[in-house]
Design goal:
Length: 99
């Protein structure tokens, strides 16, 4: 990821679509900053999953970004988008192996 193994890890945590105002996070700009400063992005797609993107895959698809590369951790609460119970959290190989 472009940093020394002992370097402090920093995170940017955002929601793809904010519940109260319906604001879509400017992921294109956030991802540029993430790559520039070697941060990790944690993205909550609970409200954007099923509503944004060509096939409803959320804010990452809306901005034509790649899961696991542009966002290291993506989480979806299923009660918001699918009217179900539970959730899903996915991450890239480095993050999953570390946990």
């Amino acid at each position: 990821l472009g940093r020394k193994p002992n370097a402090q890890r920093r995170f940017i945590v955002v929601e793809g679509l904010y519940k109260n105002l319906g604001t879509i996070a400017p992921l294109d700009r956030i991802v540029q900053l993430k790559h520039k400063y070697h941060y990790r992005l944690i993205l909550d797609e609970s409200f954007s999953f099923g509503t944004l993107g060509k096939t409803g895959r959320g804010a990452l698809e809306h901005y034509h970004l790649q899961p696991m590369y542009d966002a290291e951790i993506v989480t979806v609460a299923l009660e918001n988008s699918l009217g179900s119970v539970g959730g899903v959290t996915i991450g890239n190989e480095e993050v999953v192996d570390h946990q």
